Amino acid sequence: MIQVLIRVSRRANDLYGIKEILKKYFFLCYNNYYKGGSLMEFIELKDVYKVYKNGVTGLAGVNLKIKKKDFVFIIGHTASGKSTLIKLLYREERPTKGNVSVGGIDVARLRNSKVYKLRRKIGIVFQDYKLLPKLTVYENVAYPLDSYGISSKEIRPKVLAALEQVGLSDKTRSFPHELSGGEQQRVCIARAIANNPKLLLCDEPTGNLDPDTSKEIMDVIEKINKELGTTVVMATHDKDIVNRMKKRVVVIKDGLVDGDYLKGSYKVNESD
Amino acid sequence: MKVIRILGKSFINACKSLVRNLSLSLASITCTIITLILVSIGLLISYNIREITKNIEKELTVVIFMTKDATSEEVIKTKSDLEKIDNVEKVIFTSKDDVKDRFKNDEKWTSIISTLNEDDNPFQDSFEVVVKNVRDINETVTTIKNMDKIDTVKYGENSVNEIVSIFDTIKTGTIVLVGGLVLVTAFLITNTIKITIFSRRKEIDIMRLVGTSNTVIKLPYLTEGLLIGILGSIIPILFTIFGYTLIYSKFSSMTVSNIIGVITLASPEGIIYIASLFLLMLGALTGMFASGIAVRKYLKV
Ligand SMILES: Nc1ncnc2c1ncn2[C@@H]1O[C@H](COP(=O)(O)OP(=O)(O)O)[C@@H](O)[C@H]1O
Ligand SMILES: [Mg+2]
User: Fold this and answer.
1) Cβ count within 10 A of residue B61
2) Which atom from ligand 1 is nearest to the alpha carbon of A204?
3) CATH of B61-154, one of 3.40.228.10, 3.40.50.11540, 2.10.109.10, 3.30.70.3040
4) Whose CA is nearest to atom 25 of ligand 1?
């Protein structure tokens, strides 16, 4: 009698487990359907113009769609409008005309006071590292989370995971001036990904680095894209990197999209 | 929890930048101190003026002289007429004989009075009238002047008006001076905060970039202004509480003679605590307002 009861309860347990698995599966499908881009692209620029106050045109009618988890290079000559495009994505600039949406947020119409909500979902990396010189590596990475009002207890694992991801676990107590350029850039990347952003924007992240170090940085960024599924949009004019990595390449010329290649290479010079 | 953490950090940051820009912070605090001490003096003076004016008004009486030919019936009628006036509180009659007697008993006047005949009386019958409401005194006086057998009506209108107008000038002067000083203080605080903001521009840019909310970015600067205001109000408050109490205890025994009567300082309890609260509020508000302007102007978030 007792054995029967035990068997029945085991059966019930197994069934319950299967039900949970099915639930999770459907939930995932459901999530992918909505967030994965079937309804809306992760990043979408529609007929975007940017004319600066001094009358210089930054972008002149750009249309661009980027899917979630994509890795996209934005390439082009100096002053072609790469940085302008990146700035529109994190609402540093507003488009003069057209629509910009990032992860379902209407970025062009986002109010100044709400910009911080967008930025918490985006990691940004620049050519100049923008680290705080008086803070240690750990403190620099923790800084944004700290300023959101998150408790140090919750911050710690996030910071350590991010530093691990960029291979700087042994430099937590160093100050930026004690690090090489490549290491400083890694700290920046760690800071950018510490809050698990859906999007990583990079504007010439290897601009100040020698080829070997650049390669290391690109390996780190590629790893983040693959392991964490972070969408990466990177403006660069580093031919070697683009040619080697075989990612999607969007060519910008005079503020317009002049080419869009899957698994592309650096084609700006060829067209000249 | 989160709010407390953010507030705590803002406070620490504000303290740090106060120390970092020490000379400028001290200048702002000193300016606040000077301003608030003057505000305090202004407050104490105008409080005393109000108390004194109240006393003067309490003692303000209308004196009425009857014509010399007024008969005793007429005097009695006038008295009852006076008592019928709405604004009249009290009527005191002094007959001309009383006045003559009074002078006769006064050493200085005895010789002169004694030269007069027994029946001769150069004085007039008079009334002293205390009014209920000083503001309506002019109307009451007009009514009295229109009554029969009234020679002259006197009340301290000139001296009262004179003193009130002197006090008003002092008051206006104080307000203008204090207003100007508050503006100068606010300007100095705004500048202090501006320097802090500029010295931390890089950090602010990074904060914006990484998604720090505008409130958290602004808070340390508003706190810094508030701190300057509060720190600047401590000395003026001590000055008000202990300084005025000391002055009061020194002068309370002494009295200063005056055309109207006697002026004494108002007692401290009635004013010093309210004045201190006011100084604290004024300091804090000026600081907040000034840093608010700096934040709006130089921290476009
Ligand atoms: N803040 C600005 N104000 C005025 N003009 C600008 C500004 N930023 C960029 N520009 C102009 O817009 C054009 C595109 O610049 P940018 O997007 O920075 O090019 P890239 O990053 O490809 O070198 C350039 O001609 C540049 O001078
Ligand atoms: Mg650029």
Assistant:
1) 18
2) 21
3) 3.30.70.3040
4) A79
